[in-house]
Amino acid sequence: MNLLVTNDDGIASPFLHELVAALRLAGHAPYVAAPKTEQSWVGAAKSRNRAIHATRADRGLGCPTWIIDGTPSDCVNIALDHLIPRTTSIDAVLSGINIGFNASLGFIIASGTIAGAWEGALHGLPALAFSQALTEEVYNQLKAADDTPDADLLATLRHSAAHAARLAAPLIGATAPHSFVVHNINFPLSCGPTTVVHRTIPARVVIPRLYSPACPEGNHRLIFRAGEDLSANEPLTDRAALAAGHISHTTLDYTRLGH
Fold this sequence. Notes:
Blueprint: E1 2-6, H1 14-25, E2 29-35, E3 54-56, E4 65-68, H2 72-83, E5 92-99, H3 105-110, H4 112-122, E6 127-132, H5 136-144, H6 151-173, E7 181-187, E8 197-200, E9 205-206, E10 228-229, H7 238-243, E11 247-253
Parallel strand pairs: 1-2, 1-5, 2-4, 5-6, 6-7, 8-11
Antiparallel strand pairs: 3-4, 7-11, 9-10
Helix pairs in contact: 1-6, 2-4
């Protein structure tokens, strides 16, 4: 399949590179359009009040690649409408693999990764978003190493990418055009070749106190919090599946909004 791939962690993210490598190994033809810099938690924001520059580049991905100085939503719109040759029919939009989970309502709505996939759905295409759960300790270690995963995390990431490549074809095939559906898939830490996929719903998590009190200069800073899970025991939520060491697959059907 011809697949447009984006992310919100930026073109340099090894999580993106591992996904692309796995897709190519599975026989797919990826086209990459990714942000120049990290765009986490920007949701579906578009760069309305400034021009956006797209650059064709060779980043060692083995496929057509563009670096775009905008949001994930910018990337998908510009790539589908202006960068990918008209003779190429894109079968789906894939986003990720995100650094950290995108599980529960608050994280789903804020996610640039899921928003990138959502722009694919807005073009009438099947759309998949992939995220890798990390502990706070592993996340901090990754950032201290300039986003270079250690051996254990790299092994998990490669298994997650292989699962993503395996899941892509059947999920794309099962998603009708113009269905306004995004498949949100979260991989646990750790993830192995036999890790099981479970269908889930978004956890109902409240996330208060997301910003620090003002410092003497009057500035507030974001503080990451996983939030307080208010979900019932059934049905299985994305957060509960990850906690149990499972792969979470949530179908986000945007036609159900308001029901």
